[in-house]
Every structure is written in structure tokens, then in C-alpha cells.
Specification:
The protein is built from 20 helices and 2 strands. The chain is mostly helical. The protein has a domain at about 275-385: Cytochrome p450-Terp, domain 2 (Orthogonal Bundle). The chain binds nitromethyldethia coenzyme A and D-malate. Pathway: Carbohydrate metabolism; tricarboxylic acid cycle; isocitrate from oxaloacetate: step 1/2.
């Protein structure tokens, strides 16, 4: 057993007992109340999931095992002191609740390099889809095709005891994370670079290797990818991609099925697809109003465009959030990155200007709970700056990163022995009866 599994088991055996005790002895303890409004508007704020990897505070944003983004930018191992932390370190922290050393991060980089052996049929399955199919269709299909290799599924069929499910889940999760960048880069090269495939470079870390396989080999892009894959990794358990992964795996579907399902949720325009919508939307705006700076009269033109767009019943991508009530700290981290490394970029300037113009317009509608920008408002402009123009691909990049958090959590779901998820539903008459109407 490798040392990560040993640590996991040690911590897991203790925590599993706690979960069992909570269920057995405190099962009737009231945790929350639920209102009609909450049930009918997406269960916002209803505590109903156990997620250990991260927690989201509406006012201060995401904390991974208690650490904020700036704290982790300081504390997680980097390849050079000026650079960005390696996402491997964040995975280690989320999985083991312990800050990694440089050696721990190196261990994971090596492990993922070793495990990066995508079966040939996965590429055949992707190739069977027309190149015009959406990158997220190809991505989730490729992940489904990987399920032939599931060790968890095999172990389950062989009757492995429940307390051991976590072990093969961990193996599947490690293999899946190791192989995702190769599959994603394959889709990118197939769709946008004439199918000229670049093999992985075993000397590179996980994020840099992803950039390399996509065809971007500069220290600057490696640095961007390390930050990107770190920032999108997790957002507690209730977001659509995390919750879907958790829900599907609660039926003991294998991690490949569960993660593919999570990715089909990420592909929705109100979730991860918003990162490509932001660029599409800005380009559409610039086509209509022309290239613009952020002087008062230009701000007015933008504000009018925003108002018109909303009046057509559409949402402004990259703004708003189901939980956050402040500017997303992931947006702030990317803005700081741009201030440090990006000079004179029109798209980045427009994104900065939208920060001044859009929130007051959204506020003026009187119904938007959070008028501030989210992670997706900034990410595309940075990718555009480094020449990664194909915004149809951006949600796949989000998906590669999201694996780190939701799959670390999946290992814990199995460690705790969490049962099948099955909330109660009621017909409309029941709600009318409750309201007395
Ligand atoms: N532009 C226009 N209207 C908005 C926006 C926006 N950016 N955000 C919220 N609203 C509207 C929303 O459509 C709803 O209208 P109605 O009552 O007519 O249906 C009203 O404001 C209240 O919505 P909220 O309760 O504030 O937001 P909710 O929790 O329902 O949804 C989002 C959260 C993120 C889905 C929503 O803010 C949105 O659609 N934003 C744009 C899409 C986006 O950027 N998504 C990415 C989220 C982050 N991620 O990566 O997943
Ligand atoms: C996410 O990163 O999952 C999004 O911000 C959406 C969410 O948290 O609901």
C-alpha cells in the first residue's frame, strides 16, 4: 500500500466511526428547517450534504480544508518561489487534510505520470463522434468510455466488503485524474489543431503537461495553467458538477460514470459553460459597439448593451452566483494575475471595465441576489491573451480541474460508507395543501 493510502486509511478509519456514531446516536438531531421558497428555488442554503474537501462562505468565498486562496498561494509547494502552486498540492490537501511537502507533490506528479495510460478505445470512441460535436460532449463520452477500466466496478462484482470500497475508488480516481489532461488535450488537438496529437512529456508536472499536450510550451502558459487548474478545483458539495458526481456515485456507479455525469452538469450555461459564454458575449458586444475603452461615454454604451441583452430575457454570463454575495475570490486571484503578468490586452481591459459597469445594472433590476462577477468572468480573457482562442473548449479545462475536488470527495464518500441519496419529492397538490391555497 502506498503512503497516501496508508494515511487515508488511518484518518478514514477514525472518521468513519464518527460518521457511524452521528447516524446511529444523533440521527434525530434537527439540523435545519426548509422553507417552501427553498424547495422551489433550487434548495439554496439547505444543509443536506457532507463534503470535506472545501466550504463556501457567501461573504469570503471558498476555503479548501480551511485555507483561503491567498493562503494556499503562499503555503502550497511551487516549482519556483515566484510561480503558482501546483494543483497536485491542492489535491493532496483536499484528500488528506494536511498541507503537502515538496516531496508529497513530487510523488503525486510522478504517480499521475505513471498512471497516464489512456486505453486506445477511448480515442476510438471520441473519434466516432463528428468533429462538430461539442468538446464537452466528446469529453464526457471519453470519460464514460474509460469505465471499462474501473477497478471499483470489478471489486464490487467480486464482492469486496463495503469498508474496502474506498481502496479501488482511490485507484480509479487517481487513474482518472492522471488521464484527464491527455483526453482533454486530444479533443483540443482533434477539434482545433487538425488532429496533430502531442504526446505527454513525463518531465512536466500535471498542469504544465496539459498545456504542453495542447501545444503551448512556455513557462508563462504553464504558470497560467497551474493557477487555472488550482482555482477551479472545488466549490464545496452543492454546485451542480460536485453534487451530480456525488449523487450518481451514491448508487455505487463507478467513478467514471459519476464524473462523466458531473461533467454533463458542468456543460450547462448557468454553470461551467458560462466561461465560454463570457467570451462569446463580449465578442458579440464588441461587434455591435466597436472596440472600446472605459471612458464615461464607452461605459454608457456598454451599460445600454447590457440592459438590452437582459431585456431579451437573457443572463449576463460571468455575473451572479447561487451562494456568493461578493466578488468571487477566484475572480480576484485572476485579476491579480493579470495585473502582474498581462499588459495592454484589449479583452482583459474590457473584462475590467465590465466590473465597473455590470454590477450596478444588475443591482438596478432589484432581483439579482449577487451582482458581482464569478470565476468565469475572468478566465477566458487570460486564455485569449496567451493565444488559446478557441473558447468552445474552455469548459473542458474547467472540467479537468474540477476532478481534483469532487473525486477527492468521492474517495471520502466511499470511506464513510455514505448510502444512496434519495430525497423526498411531492406533487404540486401537496405544496398547495401546505400553503392552504
Ligand atoms: N444576468 C441577468 N440576470 C441574472 C443574473 C445575471 N448574471 N444573475 C441572476 N439573474 C437573475 C436570475 O435569472 C433570476 O431571474 P428570474 O427571477 O427572472 O428568473 C434572478 O436574477 C434571481 O436569481 P439569483 O437568485 O440571484 O441567482 P440564482 O441563484 O438563481 O442563479 C446563477 C445563479 C449563477 C445561475 C445566475 O447568477 C446566472 O445565471 N449567472 C450567469 C451565468 C453564470 O455566470 N454562471 C456561472 C456560475 C459560476 N460557475 O462557474 O458555475
Ligand atoms: C462552481 O465553481 O461550482 C460555481 O461557482 C457554482 C457554484 O458554486 O454553485
Amino acid at each position: 500500500m502506498d503512503y497516501i493510502k496508508e494515511k487515508l486509511l488511518k484518518k478514514g478509519e477514525q472518521e468513519r466511526q464518527i460518521v457511524k456514531k452521528l447516524v446511529k446516536e444523533y440521527g434525530d438531531l434537527q439540523l435545519d428547517t426548509v422553507s417552501m421558497g427553498q424547495v422551489l428555488t433550487g434548495m439554496k442554503g439547505v444543509t443536506s450534504l457532507l463534503t470535506v474537501t472545501s466550504k463556501l462562505d457567501p461573504e469570503s468565498g471558498i476555503r479548501f480544508r480551511g485555507y483561503s486562496i491567498p493562503e494556499l498561494q503562499e503555503k502550497l509547494p511551487k516549482l519556483n518561489p515566484e510561480g503558482e502552486p501546483l494543483p497536485e498540492g491542492l489535491f493532496y490537501l483536499m484528500l488528506l487534510d494536511e498541507l503537502p511537502t515538496v516531496e508529497d507533490v513530487q510523488y503525486l506528479t510522478n504517480e499521475w505520470t505513471k498512471r497516464n495510460k489512456v486505453p486506445g478505445h477511448v480515442f476510438d470512441v471520441i473519434n466516432a463522434l463528428p468533429p462538430t460535436s461539442k468538446p464537452m460532449t466528446q469529453f464526457s463520452t471519453g470519460i464514460m468510455a474509460m469505465a471499462t477500466e474501473s477497478l471499483f466496478q470489478k471489486a464490487y462484482r467480486e464482492g469486496v466488503p463495503k469498508d474496502e470500497y474506498w481502496d479501488t475508488t482511490y485507484e480509479d480516481v487517481m487513474n482518472l485524474i492522471a488521464q484527464l489532461p491527455t483526453i482533454a488535450a486530444y479533443i483540443y488537438r482533434r477539434n482545433f489543431q487538425g488532429g496533430d496529437i502531442i504526446p505527454p512529456n513525463p518531465k512536466l508536472d500535471w498542469a504544465a503537461n496539459f498545456a504542453h499536450m495542447m501545444g503551448y510550451d512556455s513557462e508563462e502558459v504553464y504558470r497560467l495553467f497551474r493557477m487555472y487548474l488550482f482555482l477551479h478545483a472545488d466549490h464545496e458539495g452543492g454546485n451542480v458538477s460536485a453534487h451530480t458526481t456525488h449523487l450518481v456515485s451514491s448508487a455505487l456507479s463507478n467513478p467514471f460514470y459519476a464524473y462523466a455525469a458531473g461533467m454533463t452538469g458542468l456543460a450547462g450555461p448557468l454553470h461551467g459553460y458560462a466561461n465560454q459564454e463570457v467570451i462569446r458575449w463580449i465578442k458579440g458586444m464588441l461587434e455591435e459597439i466597436g472596440p472600446c475603452g472605459c471612458a464615461d461615454e464607452e461605459k454608457e454604451k456598454i451599460a445600454n448593451y447590457v440592459k438590452n441583452y437582459i431585456s431579451e430575457g437573457k443572463v449576463i454570463p460571468g455575473f451572479g452566483h447561487a451562494v456568493l454575495r461578493v466578488t468571487d475570490p477566484r475572480y480576484v486571484a485572476q485579476k491579480k494575475f493579470a495585473e502582474k503578468y498581462v499588459k495592454d490586452d484589449h479583452m482583459v481591459d474590457v473584462v475590467n471595465c465590465l466590473y465597473e459597469v455590470v454590477p450596478p445594472v444588475l443591482q438596478s433590476l432589484g432581483k439579482v441576489k449577487n451582482p458581482w462577477p464569478n470565476v468565469d468572468a475572468y478566465s477566458g480573457s487570460l486564455l485569449q491573451h496567451y493565444g488559446i482562442d478557441e473558447y468552445f473548449f474552455y469548459t473542458v479545462m474547467f472540467g479537468v480541474s474540477r476532478a481534483l475536488g469532487v473525486l477527492a470527495q468521492l474517495v471520502w464518500d466511499r470511506m464513510y460508507g455514505l448510502p444512496i441519496e434519495r430525497p423526498k419529492s411531492q406533487p404540486l397538490q401537496w405544496f398547495k395543501d401546505q400553503a392552504g391555497i
